[in-house]
Amino acid sequence: MKAVILIFFISLNLCAQLPKGFVYVQNEIPTIQIELRYFSKNNFVGERIDGYQKEVLILSKEAVDALKLVQYKLNKKGLGLNIFDGYRPQRAVNHFYKWALDVNDTLMKQQFYPNELKRDLFKNGYIATKSGHTRGSTLDVTLIDLKTGNEIDMGSPYDFFGQESWVTFDMLTVKQKRNRNQLQKIMLANGFRNYQKEWWHFTLNNEPYPNTYFDFLVK
Q1: Total of domains in the chain
Q2: 120: CATH
Q3: pTM of the entire structure?
Q4: Where in the sequence numbering do the catalytic residues fall?
Q5: Residue 50, in any domain of the structure
Q6: pLDDT tens-digit profile, the chain (219 residues)
Q7: How far apart are CA 58 and CA 88, in angstroms?
Q8: Residue 141 forms beta bridges with which residues?
């Protein structure tokens, strides 16, 4: 009995770390797969990003409720969600801004923006001083094959800055087009809107905090 009470107490403390209205996605959708790129060095900056202290995915409760239905429908087709990022602290966005100002730091250029000048990333809409992610109802996501656990081919990798990642980019194979369309269709049909320059980026239409940019830690 003591062990049960202790576990329950720890669970309550974990939930209490989040502001009201936010949840840990893995607690709500245990089957979801996550790969928080900004908790690792595998991102366009090349280092862990400020504010990411643990590989846990956080979103508004409303966004997660919509995702539950998406995941359920995908699972019936043998597919699932793999999420690269959800809620993003403002300090992480500030980290991106400081990185972008250092035009000599091009360590990850060949992998993430080979055809873009770093000084143009703001102008071209790939980086901003404010992000929808910081409002808590935006996520970066792709699809996986449930049998293998592998991502399906979308024609360009996540966070690739260039026209190849635009939703309307047409120089793709038939399979890649079908995969992208499948992701777009199911997300838009279940309450999300897309961002035309990033096939992976979606925001809840009726997001609960449309004008608030949060800065609590991902932990």
Answers
A1: 1
A2: 3.30.1380.10
A3: 0.91
A4: 198
A5: yes
A6: 444 333 333 333 444 489 999 999 999 999 999 999 999 999 999 999 999 999 999 999 999 999 999 999 999 999 999 999 999 999 999 999 999 999 999 999 999 999 999 999 999 999 999 999 999 999 999 999 999 999 999 999 999 999 999 999 999 999 999 999 999 999 999 999 999 999 999 999 999 999 999 999 999
A7: 8
A8: 83
